[in-house]
Design a protein that fits this description.
Layout lengths: L5 E4 L5 E4 L10 E6 L2 E6 H7 L1 H7 L10 E3 L5 H11 L8 H14 L2 H9 L6 H11 L2 H13 L1 H4 L8 H9 L3 E7 L14 E6 L4 E7 L9 E6 L2 E6 L11 E6 L4 E6 L9 E5 L2 E5 L2 E2 L2 E2 L3 E5 L4 E5 L10 E5 L2 E9 L2 E8 L4 E9 L5 E7 L2 E7 L8 E7 L4 E4 L14 E4 L2 E5 L3 E7 L4 E8 L7 E7 L35
Parallel strand pairs: 3-5
Antiparallel strand pairs: 1-2, 3-4, 6-7, 6-31, 7-8, 9-10, 10-11, 11-12, 13-14, 14-17, 15-16, 17-18, 19-20, 20-21, 21-22, 23-24, 24-25, 25-26, 27-28, 28-29, 29-30
Helix pairs in contact: 1-2, 3-4, 4-5, 4-6, 5-7, 6-7, 7-9
Length: about 500
């Protein structure tokens, strides 16, 4: 069997790779032979995405001029997966495809393929991913798989005997993710500190909440944006009091050092914003200012401490519901009359794309979480049972909606916040913290713990907490109060050093 590939042109003129029959060829084409099959691909694309081909064609050797090459250490299935990923597909893979794809990315050194494999780690393939990636030396994938297994250690413990002891030891050396929460709090003063102004974590062994750290006295989590990025907690915006004067300073908590630092706030003052951490950046989505909803979006690059504006939301919105699935950013925007649009932000194009619309009578989206290639949109129940939450599941691969069985929430509270870890989803209220097991079209209660007995809006997230970080906490840090951070250049490095 001979398999041919050809380069096709997008509407913007950028070449892509796809598998198509025929013998179409260009001056930049390269014929790749694998086990008696051949692929006609664009040499430029291979050089841009594969370290192996980049080194091969920049070596100055005679292979640079050849129009054909033979690959000995790559299988056909793995190379086909590579071509699909370079064609911007996100295929769900079988076990055999995963093994050959890992072999392919190990030999050809393809970051895009490695990232895709990381994006599709799940409870069914994590052990295979971990063992195979460690065998072939794909360390980033191996580490990501080990972290996933560590978070599901209790559920996968019986299966770990199939792994070499050295790999099991590495898993056990890692820190697990902890469920963390903070309530809405206004700034306090050094003289009148509010002892309730704390960030807390769930002690799963004792099923109770414990204090992780105190908020700095100048920090506000009221109407703020709260997110975790690279295992650091960021708080942006928030208001001082009922006047809705915005806190202009941003705050960052590092659990490894148990310290707080300050950063510049957004260029456009805002509250009731959504803050999202993704691939080394913070995204401030929408919000309000002077009682007016905003559509503007800003991105903060941690590497250089700068804020910059991006393409605005399709419409002004506060408290935007968001989630990251398959390494892609999605938001819910309510249209009214029971209709909720789901948009994707395409980072490489700086563009918002409409993905789908969910229409349910007397309903609007309350929250959204991602698991595998599914988006779970939690919404209020019908008019006669408003406090109950109904869940609809949108599968990104099939493009199909499915109504989940049953309703969630009761007199103890509803699913107004949720966090996914492995195959579990955590949610809480003042009365109870509930862990559900995520099944295909139903969430099954796994265990319950003490509730988060605080008043006000609750922000929840996951963090990996060193043992030192969960020891007796320090007094609330007193960050500089008189620093006028609105005067600092927004496109400059970090505005304030760690204390």
């Amino acid at each position: 069997m001979t398999i041919h590939s050809r380069a096709v042109m997008e509407s913007n003129g950028c070449p892509r790779v796809s598998q198509q029959p025929g013998h179409w060829k260009t001056p930049d084409s390269l014929r790749v032979n694998i086990d008696g099959s051949s692929f006609l691909v664009d040499k430029t694309i291979l050089c841009e995405n594969c370290e192996y081909f980049r080194a091969l064609f920049q070596s100055g050797m005679r292979e640079c001029e050849q129009e054909e090459t033979q690959l000995q250490c790559v299988g056909i299935m793995g190379f086909l997966v590579l071509l699909r990923v370079l064609d911007r597909e996100q295929p769900v893979l079988s076990s055999d495809q995963i093994v050959e794809a890992i072999q392919c990315t190990a030999f050809l050194q393809v970051p895009a393929l490695t990232e895709h494999l990381i994006n599709i780690i799940n409870s069914e393939n994590c052990l295979l991913m971990y063992h195979t990636a460690a065998t072939y030396g794909v360390w980033k994938l191996s580490h990501s798989s080990a972290l996933f297994i560590r978070d599901m250690y209790a559920d996968l413990k019986e299966d770990l005997h199939a792994l070499p002891n050295k790999l099991v030891d590495y898993i056990e050396s890692l820190l697990p993710s902890s469920y963390v929460a903070v309530c809405s709090h206004s700034p306090s003063t050094e003289l009148l500190q509010d002892l309730q102004r704390t960030v807390c974590y769930l002690d799963e062994e004792h099923r109770e909440w414990k204090v992780l750290t105190h908020l700095p006295v100048s920090t506000s989590t009221t109407m703020a944006g709260v997110a975790v990025l690279d295992n650091k907690l960021y708080i942006i915006g928030g208001v001082h009091d009922v006047s809705k004067k915005v806190v202009e300073t941003g705050f960052c908590y590092n659990p490894a050092a148990n310290t707080w630092s300050t950063i510049c706030g957004c260029q456009h003052l805002r509250y009731n914003l959504t803050l999202l951490g993704h691939e080394g950046c913070l995204y401030a989505l929408g919000g309000e200012y002077n009682m007016k909803a905003l559509s503007s979006v800003e991105r903060y690059k941690v590497s250089n401490g700068s804020w910059g504006f991006l393409s605005p939301l399709p419409c002004p919105a506060a408290l935007v519901v968001s989630a990251v699935a398959m390494n892609r950013i999605f938001v819910c925007l309510w249209k009214g009359k029971g209709a909720t649009d789901i948009h994707e932000y395409v980072t490489e194009r700086d563009q918002w794309l409409l993905v789908t619309t969910l229409t349910r009578e007397h309903s609007y989206g309350l929250y959204m979480v991602a698991h595998k290639d599914n988006l779970y949109v939690m919404r209020n129940g019908p008019c006669d049972d408003f406090l109950l939450c109904v869940i609809d599941c949108y599968n990104l691969s099939s493009g199909q909606w499915t109504a989940m069985r049953g309703q969630y929430g009761n007199s103890k509270g509803s699913l107004l916040t949720a966090v996914v870890r492995g195959d579990s989803v955590f949610t809480l209220s003042r009365q109870v913290t509930t862990e559900y097991t995520i099944e295909d079209y139903q969430w099954r209660v796994k265990r319950e713990s003490k509730g988060f007995g605080r008043i006000g809006s609750i922000y929840t997230f996951l963090m990996r907490l060193p043992k030192a970080a969960v020891s007796p906490v320090r007094k609330s840090p007193n960050l500089p109060q008189n620093q006028n951070l609105r005067d600092c250049p927004r496109l400059s490095p970090q505005c304030s050093d760690i204390l």
